[in-house]
């Protein structure tokens, strides 16, 4: 592209230069240095005396715009244009660079095809980055030292950072600024302010570069709170009570768990004991039944024909003497009785002087 531009400009330059070899003209005022923000316009002026034929603008050694006295401006790129002014015998060409970029920084030259008549200036394109303080408000207590960090990102060149408190500059010994390279040729800066406030203050971080009409700023409000100590004490007391309550509840929980375990164990032991006693009782009852059965077998059957001697005189049958006489002699004093149909009630009382009587039961 550059070779194509030069091939077009070279014939124009030679054509315009040949007729003017006998005339004396020069650059009366050349361009001046300019510093602009990226994205804005940059303007350079070059004034020449009467008799000029060709004026060429070069950026970093490459022609970007040509002005011919008989034809006017010849623009080869959209970003480079010009305005022309004529005042008396002088001609002024104004180069306008649109949407400046960081890569446009460098030498801008005005040439009229005379080695001794070239004038140049420098263009500096700067980038306005971001500036921030993370906390917009900060509460501090008495005798508390705080650090406020101001961060500048994506600047070109690296900004100059200063601090102010209530519209008064803070001494540079109170803060430290560190710079570091960023991406795409940009720069970052980090400034840390250390102070011990005694009252509520408005702190301002200022970042400045040459192209800025006024420094960019970020602010933070320091709220001085005397009751912060009391709040800390109440918070500590609250935390202490919470800890004590947690310990007490834990202890009560352990005690309750132990009580539940003890009750459960006692219930289990009691249940086992009652079961054991029931088994013992069952065994004892069975043994008792077996003992009664053995006693019954040993004692034999009850004599249902036995009649107490008290009832003999009143309940003798009429035929008893004749039957008795067959089995007993008169000296034996035996009495024979028949078995009653109804079982008489057994009496357990005995005579004072019992009489020996032999009872014989006929079956």
TrEMBL record:
It is found in: Membrane. One of its GO terms (biological process) is cell-cell adhesion. The chain crosses the membrane at residues 241-265. It is a single-pass membrane protein. Pfam families: C2-set_2, I-set. PANTHER family: IMMUNOGLOBULIN SUPERFAMILY MEMBER 5. This is Immunoglobulin superfamily member 5. The gene is IGSF5.
